[in-house]
Amino acid sequence: MSAGTLSPRSPESENSPRSQASDLLLYQGSEWDFETLRRIHDACEEIALGEMGLSVYPNRIEVISSEQMLDAYASTGLPLFYKHWSFGKHFAQHEALYRKGLRGLAYEIVINSDPCVSYVMEENTATLQALVIAHAAFGHNHFFKNNRIFKDWTDAKGILDYLEFAKNFVARAEERFGEVAVERTLDAAHALMSQGVHRQRQRRVPDLRTEELRERERREYDAERFNDLWRTVPGKTQAHVPPSELERRRSLLQLPQENLLYFLEKSAPRLAPWQREIVRIVRNVAQYFHPQRQTKMMNEGCATYTHYRVLNRLHEQGRISDGAMLEVLHNHSSVIMQPEFDDPRYSGINPYALGFAMMQDIERICEHPTEEDQEWFPDIAGCGDAMPVLREAWAEYRDESFILQFLSPHLIRKLRLFHLSDDSGKPALRVDAVHDERGYRRVRQALARQYDPAWTEPDIQVVDVDLSGDRRLILEHRVLHGRTLEEKEARLVLRHLAYLWSYDVLLKEVDPNTGAVLREHAVAPPRD
Amino acid sequence: MEILDRRLNPKGKSLPNRQRFLRRAKALIQDAVRDSSAQRDIRGADGGGEVSIPMHGVREPSFSLGQGGMREHVLPGNKEYREGDEIQRPPGGGGGGSGNEGSDDGGGEDSFRFVLSREEFLELFLDDLELPDLAKRRLAQLVDPAFRRAGYTSSGSPANLSLSRTLRNSLSRRIALKRPKPESIAQFEAEIARLEALGDPEGDIPELRAQLDRALRRSQRIPYIDPIDVRYRRFEPVPRPVAQAVMFCLMDVSGSMTEDMKDLAKRFYMLLYLFLQRRYKQVEVVFIRHTHEAKEVDEQTFFHSRETGGTLVSTALEEMRKVIEARFPPAEWNIYAAQASDGDNAAGDSTRTARLLLEHILPAVQYYAYIEVGRDGEHGMPGFPRGATDLWRTYEQLVASGAPMAMKRVRNRREIFPVFRELFRKRGLTEEATA
């Protein structure tokens, strides 16, 4: 060996003050193999399940190359997805940025499935793998399994099989009906993807037991409120009004309907069966991702908080070295970096940063509350153990309600949040609220609204179909605060919609307060 | 918990998506490739590279909220603002923190940049070009033989042992020679043991023992697998038809050709070489340079060494004829020739040149391309016929008579790609380019 070669272990094996402790180390240096991954996973599991009380789906960790990671990126994070040109486009885009070094790759991708699949990149160092496993395989995994929205809306057991089915179905359709025809249908369905989700829970048919219970409750209520006097009060005779033509049609087509893809799948007159199935596939995928959009901040907060705690604990136990811990901290702090609003790097609030800060803040409130916290959060302040509170929050809230419930004045001050209102009718922006006594609640409310899909996404519904006439489909956009649709994009989407509907489509932008129609877009289906 | 290694999967999982994307945006990408190829040098053309296409062609639209109306932002990092402060709108709309809607202020959405591989680039660039004349194919003598399965053989390498065929032979031989099965031997033994236990009431044991003995000897004499059973898979070399091409590069290197001109010629040759390579497995290149005498040289000399002397084009053609006769029989080779010159030729040489071409060269070649290089801005107004050079006039007559020949003038590096494209444009689309 020539002088100057330094094997990565030598400092630790020679002059480590705790050479005995180094037996505890899960790994040394940055190299890893599958055995290392297993040891890391088991160590993380011990802490996450044992000390933090998380409950997770069984884990499956898959090692992939950077190219595969790019690929997974491009197909919206799903490993086996049907083929479509837009994924090729995203791949090309990501690849160009990645090759130039403008953008790094995520260290992991995790899939809400049972077993929970985490993809880790082969390029990661052992420390990064530990970080990733704690973050994804325990943090995200716990969130997926326990959060109410995920439980209600997604089927973790079925998703991998469903994706497999979708992939094969699309491939078979391409073979039978041609790539171009399938592509056209997929294009159209993709354009409507964000209008392809049920936002409200569908009415479930209650089972007989609850039905009976409710019936009894109703009767008891009536008995309590019974007053014979009401019988003597003269009233209008209830004339039975036959439902109007409009009402009949509406109930027939289940209108108004906010899920455009659902409506098309069920009611579009001229779709071929395979097209309906494709529309359905896109709708189901959209629905599958819907919870993730509503809980992005919490989900990342939960995962970041988990990896931070697990790795700190591992370090305390002497199972990862000081050097590894420094690497963890370096990565951790770059993940939760939040540039300020006047920083050129600023591009919205970093969900990792806000999420992690809120989780830590809850921990602080539980363990070391101030007087202010006692006043704002009497339920949890000083309760001692943050974990039950956090677990409860992770299970029962989504971003909007979580902020509304748990954003503390302390954190608002720390992040120096302020609320700006931007009315295009006025020449200047106005600072509505800042981080002071008068502003806390308003800042909190405004921030929560930013995470509310009902506030940030256009509310577009199918309201009517001219069944007796030219079968024109009529949509309505209920315009909130004068924010109308981007016109060019809207027309492109409507053209896709008209293709699926096969007749004219009319979109009215309506002010819900006055009922006035602000704008109208009419599009005819493309002629072939 | 399980750990899977997904890296073992075949690469290029995203290839179908990419192909779909390229197909979808083909027209746009092709334009982009043409545009970018006008600027890049020939080495760049070889290497693929980044192209940029307009975003609107590959947009995926979705409903989004436009500008205007009441908006709210909650931003971090307040420094001096107090409640009720008014902030002037930054120019360009949006507001200080409209991070999510920020796409309208930059060029990010307008164009879409990505990288094409060398293959894809050439494919798109050369897509609508074709080689004039049909390729001649010939059976090259074992130059690149392909191996094909051809039945079985009784000798060969152990790697090619055909287990199923061998065992089939062994089984039929064993049946034919009545080799006793192991089960029947076991049966004899069991029977003997049973009778022995009973004390041999009927005295059958000696008889049985003799039978067992015969069976044992028989099974020893008839082996389970015999060398005559063994079969090997046989492979047979098959000559693959190889379409092969040779490309002649002819260049005038007399004093009147400047380095710039040679550079232009070189670019043209390289494009032609790439093009031929895509169409033929084997492409040979022959470099012939000439002054008043011609010589076949290697590439380095061809492009870089200087000669002095007069200019006799016919010498180069003569040299080419000799090379063709010696090494490239026209029946077997697809012959392409590209000649670059500044158009000078000695006064009396034209007729000889024309005759050589007409009688020897043109009948042998698939295509003869002549580019006349000149200096930028040297020759009068664009599109205006300048005083044609000797060579140009000579060749013009040949082209007019319908020879497989094309000619073009190139004055600038930028023109190389368009000129090349024009020379090899699909026939029938534009005949006037050569006429």
Précis, in short:
The complex is a heterodimer of chains A (528) and B (435). By secondary structure, chain A is α/β, with parallel strands linked by helices.
Topology:
The complex is a heterodimer of chains A (528) and B (435).
Chain A: H1 10-15, H2 34-51, E1 59-64, H3 66-74, H4 85-100, E2 108-111, E3 116-121, H5 126-146, H6 148-153, H7 159-177, H8 179-191, H9 208-225, H10 229-232, H11 245-252, H12 260-267, H13 273-294, H14 296-316, H15 322-335, H16 351-367, H17 371-376, H18 386-396, H19 399-406, H20 409-415, E4 418-423, E5 428-433, H21 440-450, H22 453-456, E6 459-465, E7 473-478, H23 487-501, E8 505-510, E9 517-523
Parallel strand pairs in A: 1-3, 7-8
Antiparallel strand pairs in A: 2-3, 4-5, 6-7, 8-9
Helix pairs in contact in A: 2-5, 2-14, 3-4, 5-14, 7-8, 7-13, 8-13, 8-23, 12-13, 14-15, 14-16, 16-18, 19-21
Chain B: E1 2-5, H1 15-24, H2 26-39, H3 42-46, E2 49-54, E3 70-75, E4 86-88, E5 111-116, H4 118-125, E6 138-139, E7 146-153, H5 163-176, H6 182-198, H7 205-221, E8 232-238, E9 241-242, E10 244-252, H8 259-279, E11 282-290, E12 294-297, H9 299-304, H10 313-327, E13 334-341, H11 350-364, E14 367-373, H12 390-400, E15 405-410, H13 416-423
Helix pairs in contact in B: 6-7, 10-11, 11-12
What do you see in this structure?
The complex is a heterodimer of chains A (528) and B (435). Chain A is an alpha/beta fold and 528 residues long. Among the domains of chain A are: 147 residues, no CATH class; 109 residues, no CATH class; 66 residues, no CATH class. Helix content of chain A is 53%, strand content 10%. Chain A contains 23 helices and nine strands. In chain A, strand 7, helix 23 and strand 8 form a beta-alpha-beta unit. The N and C termini of chain A lie far apart (75 Å). The N terminus of chain A is likely disordered. Chain B is flat. In chain B, helix 10 packs parallel to helix 11 and helix 11 crosses helix 12. Chain B has three domains: 62 residues, no CATH class; 84 residues; 183 residues, 3-Layer(aba) Sandwich (Rossmann fold). Chain B has a six-stranded mixed sheet with strand order 12-11-10-13-14-15, sandwiched between helices. A two-stranded antiparallel sheet of chain B has the order 2-5. In chain B, strands 6-9 form a two-stranded antiparallel ribbon. Chains A and B meet through helix 2, strand 1, helix 3, helix 4 and helix 8 of A and strand 1, helix 1, strand 3, strand 4 and strand 5 of B. Strand 5 of chain A pairs antiparallel with strand 4 of chain B, so a sheet runs across the interface.
